[in-house]
Amino acid sequence: MQRYVESLNYTNLFNQTGLIFSQSPDLYFLKKPQKPKSLHKRLQVCQKIAIFATIQTYKLFVVTVMNTKFGLLAAILTLCLNMVPLSLAAQGETIVFTPQWTAQAQFAGYYVAEAKGFYREAGVKVRIEHPTATQPAMARLQTNQCQATTLQLCQALEIVDGGVPVVNILQTSMNNAMVIVSARNQDPLKQKGARVGIWSVGFGQLAICMSIKDHLNYEFVCFAQNVNLFVAGALDATLAMSYNEYYQLAQAGITMTDKNVYRFCDHGYNVQEDGVYMTRSYYEQHRDQARRFAQASRKGWEYAAQHPDEALDIVMKYVNKEKIGTNRVMQQLMLKEVLRLQVDRESKKREFRLRPDMVKLANQLMLQNRMLDREVTYNELLDK
After folding, report:
1. How large is the angle between the packed helices 39-66 and 71-87, nearest 10 degrees?
2. Nearest to residue 166, comparing CAs of 276, 92, 273?
3. Each residue of 19-45: pLDDT tens digit?
4. Dihedrals φ, ψ of 321, to 5°?
5. What is the pTM of this model?
């Protein structure tokens, strides 16, 4: 792995993470870096590696083409093709939508909107393309390989703070889904210094805040996408989404009670998660198209809520097409929980809106723990 990193000339970026890779290609573990950095900064740099690698690979392709017999012509054609999305604003080009994860019921509303023709009825062309290990969703957005993606609110704040303005065109999540599940029926709040699993691609900002605020000093261990480390007994606890890994743990036979499951939404961390985002530069040139896409996507989610069995059938078609290792029972549980999380606790309705108070709470938590350099305002995330 390190030889591969060096070949792309970003060894220094890799070393900033304070991470070392295990023999398993999809797992890596924290160690102390030579120069102490905050855990959050190390995780951020790790995410940047994937984006940087994608961009460098694309650049390498262009350089290779330039060295061929017809290199110059091919390079010009490549440049022209990449300029297309900027020049066809009024001609109805396709919106490539990349969810932040592999095919699953978490994105049922978008699958329904495509399958039922809601996008076509709205007069917008949409193609759903899922991320890969080498092309994460945010990397695809930044390299213009997709025009829309899903992000959690905390992720969006980090991205804007990092200098990439994005616009929330549709908010689906109204509640936080993250939990900590501890082994051996232990209370997560009493496990100081525990080894806790955390996603390598992000999503764990609130857990880091909680660990710092409550002086728990968790040792976070990164995992890619499953709960194998925790089930094998290598971790004291693991982060999980109530619609995903939580059910994986249940299917693996892990006992979960009120004592060993900590739900962030019940302890002052109820920050919204999934919303659909575009870069502001793209959005400002495609406002009408973006709004039609958002309206049709909302219609897809509303239809899924009214027809969950049909929505599940549609989800399974996408799952099978992408060859995802899951099952119908798991996806049915996921869909039910995702739809529950879309209902606002106070209004008891699906509001499909970003709440100013939750944006403020997320800013407050992340600023207190030095995850942001400045406040990212509610208006920065919306249409101006």
Report:
1. 130
2. 276
3. 332 322 233 233 333 333 455 555 555
4. -60, -40
5. 0.78
